[in-house]
Amino acid sequence: MSRWLTVVGIGEDGLDGLAPKVRRLVDAAEVLVGGDRHLSKAPASKALRIDWTDGFDSAFAEIAKHNGRRVVVLASGDPLNYGVGGHLIRRFGADQVNVIPTPGAFSLAAARMGWSLPDIDCFTVHGRPLAGANLHIQPDARLLILGEDGGTPRKLAALLTARGFGASRITVLAHLGGADENRVDGVARDWTHARSADLSTIAVECLAGPGAKVYSRAPGLPEDAFEHDGQITKREVRAATLARLMPLAGQVLWDVGAGSGAVAIEWLRAAPGTAAVALERDPARAARIERNAANLGVPQLKIVTGEAPAALTDLSPGPDAVFVGGGVAAPEILETCWRALKPGGRLVANAVTLEAEARLVAFQAEVGGELARVSVSRAQPVGRRSALQPLMAVTQLAATKDRGDRS
């Protein structure tokens, strides 16, 4: 089947930077699609023009009317790297869309900085919370960031400084590959530069100061990494819990009775493309979860305030994994979570009371899985000496739903 829809990536130099064969595709287009900035780079022609003024959905509906004609979409750089290419493929199918990339902002910025792309974290804060950068701020990390607007460098500098990374070097690269290309360099704690171009790429060399807040992505962050009121899964138990939940790229977790949100937050930090829903009945705790998610770089965490199991019936999408950390002994919570779980999904539930433990034993008899006792002792001062004092033991059920179970 021929592909009637072509997506052409262009740079700051517009159509002049295209190979002759690609330029001929643009010149022969019967329908030309793009934003005002991209369409302005194409000379006048008889092609019908469609822009994004009314949003993607409206434009896609108009594009669909021209199936079978020569439709060309102009996009920035690599259209499949935070670009419109992915949206078009999801709407029309990969067998209908031909994508022709050109060097994008990340490639051009890495070339200017002399950095190897596989060694860099590349991400965008365009249309996304700047707090997502917290996930990537690590000692000696190199970051390439697509900014939201001209104020992003100043906000990013303030964020780095607040995290104890004020010595980090920031470079703002604008109009890469064009006649107006420019570069501004500085240090985060001393950033005083004027507003940059709205379309810019920000390069950061993260340098940690003496008081820097440094967090690994490995499960088991210390309790003081989270704001909490005592309702938090202790780090040793949390690490064991995440190991059983098995965060996998693109999968969804339900954290039921989320407390501080620690398990859901560490799930999101552990694997790319994951999603999570934190269900918490207490509004004050739900607000803390939101702050914790932002501070630890996963502001995309979905927070639902409600009571289980009733609130579980409206949650979507369905989970690949479920953690029940609170309310295990309440009627129907485990059963509701198990029914919602996708085939092959994992359920992990922790209990500290005898009533909750009895509930796990009974549920394990129904669905299978493994029961374990997690006991942790921590050294505490006893007079002039110290001794290991046990925390409350946790009984943990870990069960995997059979891949043939569609119930």
Give the key terms:
five-stranded parallel beta sheet, alpha/beta, Rossmann fold, 407 residues, Methyltransferase, Cobalt-precorrin-4 Transmethylase, Domain 2, seven-stranded mixed beta sheet, Cobalt-precorrin-4 Transmethylase, domain 1
Write up this protein.
- With 407 residues, the protein is an alpha/beta fold.
- It folds into 3 domains: 5-102, Tetrapyrrole methylase, N-terminal domain (Cobalt-precorrin-4 Transmethylase, domain 1, 3-Layer(aba) Sandwich); 106-205, 2-Layer Sandwich (Methyltransferase, Cobalt-precorrin-4 Transmethylase, Domain 2); 223-400, Vaccinia Virus protein VP39 (Rossmann fold, 3-Layer(aba) Sandwich), CATH 3.40.50.150.
- Helix content is 26%, strand content 24%.
- It has 11 helices and 19 strands.
- It has helices at 20-27, 36-39, 56-64, 84-92, 105-113, 152-162, 235-245, 262-270, 283-295, 333-340, 354-367, and strands at residues 5-10, 31-33, 48-50, 71-76, 97-100, 121-124, 142-146, 169-174, 182-187, 200-205, 252-256, 275-280, 302-305, 321-324, 346-351, 370-374, 377-382, 385-390, 394-400.
- The strands form 4 sheets. Strands 13-12-11-14-15-19-16 form a 7-stranded mixed sheet, sandwiched between helices. A 5-stranded parallel sheet has the order 3-2-4-1-5, with helices on both faces.
- A hairpin with a 2-residue loop joins strand 17 (377-382) and strand 18.
- It is globular and about 80 Å long.
